[in-house]
Specification:
mainly alpha
Length: 85
């Protein structure tokens, strides 16, 4: 029984790793490191520092968390408007 659980856990880890690599590739982040991230938010009028934890977790990031959320929200709203036309 534990062998099945161990195999399932290992397979889950493999699938998660594959999904994270695919996401990084699609986002153009493959091969980037925290050094490729901006130290300060590049959104117009923001200039907030981007934490080292965020830069390490999301290599190549250009926006602080708040500006990234705002940007994603605006993109979702635009996509909804375009879909509902």
């Amino acid at each position: 029984m534990t062998d099945d659980i161990d195999r399932a856990r290992k397979r889950e880890e493999e699938l998660l790793g594959d999904a994270l690599r695919d996401q990084a590739r699609r986002a153009g982040l493959a091969g980037k490191t925290a050094a490729d991230s901006a130290e300060y938010c590049q959104a117009d009028g923001c200039d907030e520092p981007i934490s080292s934890a965020r830069r390490a977790a999301y290599p190549g990031c250009k926006y602080c968390i708040d500006c990234q959320r705002r940007s994603e929200h605006q993109q979702q709203q635009s996509a909804r408007r375009a879909f509902n036309r």
